[in-house]
Amino acid sequence: MRDWLSNFREQHLTTYTLKFRIRYWWFTQLCLLGIIVFGKWSLIPYVLAWWFFGAMAITIYAHRGLSHNSITLKWKWLEHLCCSLCILSNIGSPLAWAVVHRMHHVYLDEEKDPHSPHQIGFLRSLTHRWDVPFENVPLRFTRGLLRLETPRWYHDNSFFPFIFFTIFIWAVTVAYGTTIYGFGELGYYMMNIFTYDGPAVWLQTWGLEFAWAGFAGVALGQWSMGITNAWQHSDKRGKGHIRNVPWYLSFINWGEGSHDYHHSYPKDYSFGKGLNDPTQYFIILLEKVGALSINRNI
Ligand SMILES: [Zn+2]
Ligand SMILES: [Zn+2]
Question: What pLDDT does 19 receive?
Protein backbone atom coordinates (compact mmCIF):
# COMPACT_ATOMS: atom_id res chain seq x y z
CA MET A 1 0.00 0.00 0.00
CA ARG A 2 2.78 2.41 0.92
CA ASP A 3 4.57 1.64 -2.31
CA TRP A 4 1.42 2.11 -4.27
CA LEU A 5 0.84 5.45 -2.59
CA SER A 6 4.35 6.66 -3.19
CA ASN A 7 4.17 5.54 -6.83
CA PHE A 8 0.90 7.37 -7.22
CA ARG A 9 2.40 10.47 -5.69
CA GLU A 10 5.48 10.34 -7.91
CA GLN A 11 3.45 9.84 -11.05
CA HIS A 12 0.56 12.18 -10.51
CA LEU A 13 1.40 14.88 -8.02
CA THR A 14 4.10 16.29 -10.18
CA THR A 15 2.89 19.66 -11.27
CA TYR A 16 6.03 21.63 -10.66
CA THR A 17 8.12 22.50 -13.67
CA LEU A 18 11.67 23.73 -13.45
CA LYS A 19 11.69 25.78 -16.54
CA PHE A 20 14.92 27.51 -16.83
CA ARG A 21 18.59 26.94 -16.75
CA ILE A 22 21.14 29.55 -17.69
CA ARG A 23 24.28 27.87 -18.85
CA TYR A 24 27.49 29.54 -19.58
CA TRP A 25 30.09 27.23 -18.17
CA TRP A 26 32.38 27.54 -21.19
CA PHE A 27 32.13 31.30 -21.23
CA THR A 28 33.20 31.56 -17.59
CA GLN A 29 36.04 29.09 -18.12
CA LEU A 30 37.30 31.14 -21.06
CA CYS A 31 37.22 34.24 -18.84
CA LEU A 32 39.34 32.41 -16.27
CA LEU A 33 41.73 31.13 -18.93
CA GLY A 34 42.00 34.67 -20.31
CA ILE A 35 43.18 35.96 -16.92
CA ILE A 36 46.07 33.47 -17.11
CA VAL A 37 46.85 33.78 -20.85
CA PHE A 38 46.91 37.59 -20.75
CA GLY A 39 48.69 37.61 -17.39
CA LYS A 40 46.13 39.85 -15.70
CA TRP A 41 47.51 39.09 -12.24
CA SER A 42 46.29 42.39 -10.84
CA LEU A 43 42.75 41.06 -11.26
CA ILE A 44 43.33 38.02 -9.01
CA PRO A 45 42.01 39.71 -5.80
CA TYR A 46 38.81 40.62 -7.64
CA VAL A 47 38.48 37.10 -9.05
CA LEU A 48 38.83 35.65 -5.54
CA ALA A 49 36.37 38.14 -4.07
CA TRP A 50 33.75 37.35 -6.74
CA TRP A 51 34.36 33.64 -6.22
CA PHE A 52 33.96 33.98 -2.45
CA PHE A 53 30.70 35.89 -2.51
CA GLY A 54 29.17 33.66 -5.21
CA ALA A 55 30.26 30.61 -3.23
CA MET A 56 28.76 31.89 0.00
CA ALA A 57 25.47 32.69 -1.73
CA ILE A 58 25.25 29.12 -3.01
CA THR A 59 26.37 27.21 0.05
CA ILE A 60 24.63 29.40 2.66
CA TYR A 61 21.49 30.57 0.90
CA ALA A 62 20.65 27.98 -1.79
CA HIS A 63 22.07 24.92 -0.04
CA ARG A 64 21.73 25.33 3.72
CA GLY A 65 18.87 27.84 3.51
CA LEU A 66 16.48 26.92 0.71
CA SER A 67 17.28 23.25 0.28
CA HIS A 68 17.67 22.15 3.90
CA ASN A 69 16.02 24.99 5.81
CA SER A 70 18.83 25.09 8.35
CA ILE A 71 19.23 28.86 8.13
CA THR A 72 16.77 31.67 7.36
CA LEU A 73 17.93 34.97 5.93
CA LYS A 74 16.45 37.94 7.74
CA TRP A 75 17.65 40.82 5.62
CA LYS A 76 15.56 41.22 2.50
CA TRP A 77 18.30 42.97 0.53
CA LEU A 78 20.68 40.13 1.38
CA GLU A 79 18.15 37.65 0.00
CA HIS A 80 18.01 39.63 -3.24
CA LEU A 81 21.78 39.74 -3.36
CA CYS A 82 22.05 35.99 -2.73
CA CYS A 83 19.48 35.16 -5.43
CA SER A 84 21.34 37.37 -7.90
CA LEU A 85 24.72 35.93 -7.00
CA CYS A 86 23.39 32.37 -7.35
CA ILE A 87 22.08 33.02 -10.85
CA LEU A 88 25.24 34.83 -11.91
CA SER A 89 27.22 31.90 -10.50
CA ASN A 90 25.65 29.63 -13.10
CA ILE A 91 23.57 27.42 -10.84
CA GLY A 92 20.36 28.77 -12.35
CA SER A 93 17.42 29.72 -10.16
CA PRO A 94 18.32 29.05 -6.50
CA LEU A 95 14.78 27.77 -5.99
CA ALA A 96 15.16 25.23 -8.79
CA TRP A 97 18.61 24.36 -7.53
CA ALA A 98 17.18 23.69 -4.07
CA VAL A 99 14.64 21.27 -5.58
CA VAL A 100 17.32 19.55 -7.66
CA HIS A 101 19.47 19.26 -4.58
CA ARG A 102 16.68 17.70 -2.51
CA MET A 103 16.30 15.12 -5.28
CA HIS A 104 20.04 14.49 -5.06
CA HIS A 105 19.73 13.69 -1.35
CA VAL A 106 16.74 11.37 -1.75
CA TYR A 107 17.84 9.56 -4.93
CA LEU A 108 21.54 9.56 -4.06
CA ASP A 109 23.42 8.04 -7.02
CA GLU A 110 20.31 6.32 -8.33
CA GLU A 111 18.66 7.00 -11.66
CA LYS A 112 16.80 10.12 -10.62
CA ASP A 113 19.78 11.78 -8.93
CA PRO A 114 20.14 14.82 -11.21
CA HIS A 115 23.93 15.11 -11.09
CA SER A 116 25.34 11.80 -9.92
CA PRO A 117 28.57 10.93 -11.73
CA HIS A 118 27.37 7.30 -11.64
CA GLN A 119 24.41 8.28 -13.78
CA ILE A 120 25.51 11.10 -16.05
CA GLY A 121 29.25 10.53 -16.08
CA PHE A 122 32.07 12.23 -14.23
CA LEU A 123 32.71 15.02 -16.73
CA ARG A 124 29.13 16.10 -17.10
CA SER A 125 28.72 16.16 -13.34
CA LEU A 126 31.94 18.15 -13.00
CA THR A 127 30.94 20.73 -15.58
CA HIS A 128 27.28 21.07 -14.54
CA ARG A 129 25.75 19.82 -17.75
CA TRP A 130 22.73 18.08 -16.32
CA ASP A 131 20.05 17.64 -18.84
CA VAL A 132 17.46 15.95 -16.72
CA PRO A 133 13.82 16.24 -17.75
CA PHE A 134 12.46 18.31 -14.92
CA GLU A 135 8.87 18.54 -16.12
CA ASN A 136 7.83 15.93 -13.62
CA VAL A 137 9.42 16.92 -10.39
CA PRO A 138 7.43 15.36 -7.55
CA LEU A 139 5.72 18.14 -5.68
CA ARG A 140 7.06 17.01 -2.32
CA PHE A 141 10.53 18.26 -3.30
CA THR A 142 9.17 21.80 -3.43
CA ARG A 143 7.85 21.74 0.14
CA GLY A 144 8.01 25.19 1.70
CA LEU A 145 9.70 26.71 -1.31
CA LEU A 146 6.91 27.87 -3.58
CA ARG A 147 5.58 30.35 -1.05
CA LEU A 148 8.90 32.17 -0.80
CA GLU A 149 8.33 35.33 -2.80
CA THR A 150 11.88 36.46 -3.45
CA PRO A 151 13.36 33.27 -4.91
CA ARG A 152 10.14 32.73 -6.87
CA TRP A 153 10.50 36.14 -8.43
CA TYR A 154 14.07 35.34 -9.45
CA HIS A 155 12.94 31.97 -10.74
CA ASP A 156 10.63 33.78 -13.16
CA ASN A 157 12.90 36.75 -13.87
CA SER A 158 16.25 35.10 -14.18
CA PHE A 159 17.67 37.67 -16.55
CA PHE A 160 17.46 40.55 -14.09
CA PRO A 161 20.59 39.62 -12.12
CA PHE A 162 22.58 40.16 -15.31
CA ILE A 163 21.12 43.66 -15.56
CA PHE A 164 21.88 44.27 -11.86
CA PHE A 165 25.42 43.01 -12.50
CA THR A 166 25.90 45.51 -15.32
CA ILE A 167 24.56 48.37 -13.19
CA PHE A 168 26.75 47.28 -10.25
CA ILE A 169 29.90 47.21 -12.41
CA TRP A 170 29.05 50.65 -13.78
CA ALA A 171 28.36 52.06 -10.29
CA VAL A 172 31.61 50.69 -8.85
CA THR A 173 33.56 52.07 -11.80
CA VAL A 174 32.02 55.52 -11.38
CA ALA A 175 32.58 55.47 -7.60
CA TYR A 176 36.19 54.39 -8.09
CA GLY A 177 36.75 57.06 -10.73
CA THR A 178 35.20 59.71 -8.51
CA THR A 179 37.60 58.97 -5.65
CA ILE A 180 40.50 59.50 -8.02
CA TYR A 181 39.35 62.43 -10.17
CA GLY A 182 36.55 63.97 -8.11
CA PHE A 183 32.96 64.71 -9.09
CA GLY A 184 33.83 67.41 -11.62
CA GLU A 185 35.92 65.32 -13.98
CA LEU A 186 33.69 62.23 -13.69
CA GLY A 187 30.55 64.33 -14.17
CA TYR A 188 32.08 65.87 -17.29
CA TYR A 189 33.02 62.37 -18.50
CA MET A 190 29.47 61.12 -18.08
CA MET A 191 27.96 64.12 -19.81
CA ASN A 192 30.26 63.53 -22.79
CA ILE A 193 30.37 59.78 -22.61
CA PHE A 194 31.17 59.22 -26.33
CA THR A 195 33.45 62.17 -26.96
CA TYR A 196 35.37 62.37 -23.68
CA ASP A 197 39.10 62.07 -24.16
CA GLY A 198 40.47 63.06 -20.73
CA PRO A 199 42.60 61.24 -18.17
CA ALA A 200 39.72 59.09 -16.87
CA VAL A 201 39.34 57.19 -20.13
CA TRP A 202 41.15 54.16 -18.68
CA LEU A 203 38.23 53.59 -16.30
CA GLN A 204 36.29 52.06 -19.19
CA THR A 205 38.86 49.30 -19.47
CA TRP A 206 38.94 48.95 -15.70
CA GLY A 207 35.17 48.47 -15.55
CA LEU A 208 35.28 45.81 -18.22
CA GLU A 209 38.14 44.04 -16.46
CA PHE A 210 36.22 44.13 -13.17
CA ALA A 211 33.31 42.39 -14.91
CA TRP A 212 35.75 39.93 -16.52
CA ALA A 213 37.12 39.11 -13.05
CA GLY A 214 33.52 38.45 -11.98
CA PHE A 215 32.99 35.77 -14.60
CA ALA A 216 36.42 34.27 -13.87
CA GLY A 217 35.36 34.06 -10.21
CA VAL A 218 32.24 32.21 -11.30
CA ALA A 219 34.45 29.81 -13.26
CA LEU A 220 36.41 29.03 -10.09
CA GLY A 221 33.15 28.40 -8.24
CA GLN A 222 32.20 25.84 -10.88
CA TRP A 223 35.28 23.84 -9.95
CA SER A 224 34.42 24.16 -6.26
CA MET A 225 31.00 22.68 -6.92
CA GLY A 226 32.52 20.09 -9.23
CA ILE A 227 34.72 18.78 -6.41
CA THR A 228 31.59 17.95 -4.44
CA ASN A 229 29.22 16.81 -7.16
CA ALA A 230 31.62 14.75 -9.21
CA TRP A 231 34.74 13.91 -7.18
CA GLN A 232 33.20 13.35 -3.74
CA HIS A 233 30.41 11.27 -5.26
CA SER A 234 32.63 8.94 -7.27
CA ASP A 235 34.14 6.91 -4.47
CA LYS A 236 35.74 3.61 -5.46
CA ARG A 237 33.34 1.74 -3.16
CA GLY A 238 30.56 2.59 -5.60
CA LYS A 239 27.15 4.18 -5.56
CA GLY A 240 25.97 5.89 -2.40
CA HIS A 241 29.48 6.11 -0.95
CA ILE A 242 30.90 9.54 -0.40
CA ARG A 243 34.51 10.53 -0.46
CA ASN A 244 35.50 13.16 2.11
CA VAL A 245 38.23 15.60 1.21
CA PRO A 246 40.88 17.09 3.51
CA TRP A 247 40.12 20.34 5.38
CA TYR A 248 42.25 22.51 3.08
CA LEU A 249 40.11 21.44 0.13
CA SER A 250 37.11 22.43 2.22
CA PHE A 251 38.26 26.03 1.80
CA ILE A 252 37.95 25.54 -1.93
CA ASN A 253 34.62 23.73 -1.94
CA TRP A 254 32.96 26.04 0.58
CA GLY A 255 33.01 23.74 3.56
CA GLU A 256 31.51 20.71 1.89
CA GLY A 257 34.57 18.59 2.64
CA SER A 258 32.86 16.25 5.11
CA HIS A 259 30.13 15.57 2.62
CA ASP A 260 29.14 12.20 4.11
CA TYR A 261 28.36 13.96 7.39
CA HIS A 262 26.14 16.34 5.45
CA HIS A 263 24.28 13.45 3.81
CA SER A 264 23.74 11.85 7.23
CA TYR A 265 22.64 15.11 8.92
CA PRO A 266 21.35 17.30 6.11
CA LYS A 267 19.50 19.64 8.46
CA ASP A 268 22.59 20.63 10.43
CA TYR A 269 23.72 24.09 9.34
CA SER A 270 27.28 22.98 10.07
CA PHE A 271 28.73 20.56 7.53
CA GLY A 272 31.52 19.21 9.68
CA LYS A 273 33.80 19.80 12.60
CA GLY A 274 36.10 22.81 12.73
CA LEU A 275 37.92 23.65 9.55
CA ASN A 276 36.23 20.81 7.70
CA ASP A 277 33.55 23.42 7.30
CA PRO A 278 35.01 26.93 7.43
CA THR A 279 31.69 28.35 6.20
CA GLN A 280 30.03 27.66 9.55
CA TYR A 281 32.09 30.44 11.16
CA PHE A 282 30.89 32.87 8.53
CA ILE A 283 27.31 31.76 9.24
CA ILE A 284 27.79 32.31 12.98
CA LEU A 285 29.14 35.78 12.23
CA LEU A 286 26.13 36.55 10.04
CA GLU A 287 23.85 35.36 12.85
CA LYS A 288 25.64 37.64 15.34
CA VAL A 289 25.05 40.70 13.16
CA GLY A 290 21.42 39.71 12.70
CA ALA A 291 21.56 38.86 9.01
CA LEU A 292 20.19 35.34 9.46
CA SER A 293 18.90 32.93 12.03
CA ILE A 294 20.14 29.39 12.42
CA ASN A 295 17.43 26.74 12.66
CA ARG A 296 18.99 24.28 15.05
CA ASN A 297 16.53 21.61 14.05
CA ILE A 298 18.53 18.43 13.79
ZN1 LIG B 1 25.86 15.05 -2.18
ZN1 LIG C 1 22.66 19.05 0.82
Answer: 55
